[in-house]
Amino acid sequence: MHLLLVEDDPMLGDALSACLRQAAYRVDWVNDAAQARAALVDHAYDAVLLDLQLPHGSGLAILRGLRDRYDATPVIILSARDRLSDRIKGLDEGADDYLVKPFPFEEVLARLRAVTRRASHRVVPLMQVGDVHVDPTRRSVLRDGVPVKLSIHEYRTLVALLERQGHIVTREQLEDAVYGRHGTIESNTVAVYIHQLRRKLGNGLIATVHGFGYRIGEAAP
User: Is 66 helix (H, G, I), strand (E, B) or coil?
Assistant: First the structure.
C-alpha cells in the first residue's frame, strides 16, 4: 500500500516513516501543507496520515479539499489537539479516524489496517455511460469490457463528469475536482484532459457545450 504521511515534526516523521516502511508500506513523507496538496494532486494514495498544524496551511483545509473533490481516500488525523471538540471537528470534516499524540506506533498500524479494510469493503456504486464502466473502489475504467489506462488527472476529470452525468460541468468545476482550489494551472489544461479522454474512450463520449463547459451522457430534462 502507498501512504502519504504529512508531518512537520522531523523526529516523529522520520520515526513513523521508518516504522511504516518496516511494516511493508510505501511511504511519501512531506512536511508542509503546500507539499501535501501537490502530492495529493499528482498521486492516488491508499491512505493519508495527516497532522493538523502545518507550515503553509492547515491539515483540516487539506482534508476539506480532498472531500470537496469527491476523493474518498481514508484519512487518519495525527494531532496533539486532544479536546473533544477538535476530534469531533476532524471527524465531521471527513476524517476516518483521529489519533492524539503521543501514540504507540503499533496503534497507528492497527488504525491503518482498520480504515483501509473498511475502505476495501465500502459499497460504492459503479458508474456507467454507454460502453464505459468506472469502478471508483478499484479506480478502474473499462471500455466495452477492456481495461483503459488513465492518468490520475484524466480519471478525476472523468469521475467529475460522471458525478453530474447529463448536466453541464464548467471548466472551473473540473479544475476544482482535479486540483482543488489551490495553485494556478494552464488555461487549456482541462481541454487537454478532455481530448485525451475522447481519444481513449471515444469521440462521442463528452460533448462540448460552447460558452458553458462539458457534458457527459444525455442532457438532463
Answer: helix
Q: Which residues contact 99 (CB under 8 A, 6 or more apart)?
A: 76, 77, 78, 79, 107, 108, 111
Give tens-digit pLDDT for 14-40: 999 999 999 999 999 999 999 999 899
Strands 140-143, 132-135: pairing is antiparallel
Beta bridge partners of 77: 50, 98
Residues in the chain: 221
Least confident of 10-19, 30-39, 44-53, 63-72: 63-72
Asked whether the beta carbons of 20 and 5 are under 8 A apart, the reply is yes
Instruction: Give the number of domains in the chain.
Output: 2
Given a contact cutoff of 8 angstroms between Cβ atoms, the answer to whether 36 and 60 are in contact is: no
Q: At what angle do helices 171-179 and 152-163 cross, to 10 degrees?
A: 130
* Beta bridge pairs of residue 214: 169, 208
217 burial via Cβ count (<10 Å: 0-12, 13-18, 19+): middle
Q: At which of 104, 121, 138 does a domain end?
A: 121
Residues 115 and 135 in one domain: no
Per-residue buried b or exposed e for 126-158, using 16+ beta carbons within 10 Å of the residue's own CB:
ebebeebbbebeeeebeeeeeebebeebbbbbb
Whole-structure pTM value: 0.70
The CATH number for 90's domain is 3.40.50.2300
